[in-house]
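hey m, so remember when u said the tokens were messed up on ur end? i reran from scratch. heres the input so u can diff it against urs
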Amino acid sequence: MKKIVKRILASLTLGIVAISSAVAVNAASVSGSLNGYSVSGSLNNTSGNKAAATASTSYGGGTAAIYTEVTLEWGFGNRTGTARNSGSGDRNKVTATATASDYGSVFLSARGSHKVSAGSYFWSDTTSIG
């Protein structure tokens, strides 16, 4: 009887951890703006404990923007990683995916630089949960 109770309690505990982690992952987002530039990002639980992070930037007016670089940093448990747009194709968007085998703190950080004819402008915004 004691073994059965222990197994039930263990199953319930694991289930609660899984549910709370899934909810936490869906809560992360970043946003910011500087000199007409805007950035937004989100961290979503796509399936199981796989986290996908996406950030995009846009220039608010004119045609001064000639290059945009975005770097994403994410963490899930003890796994971290970075991704950067390659400069080819859509330079204003980068998508990164991280997979972790354990549960833990989640953070998403977006940093970028915007090079325009008048100079370079930099923005940075970070959010964390966990």
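this time it looks ok to me. DSSP finds one helix and eight strands in the chain. if urs says something different then somethings off w ur setup not the seq
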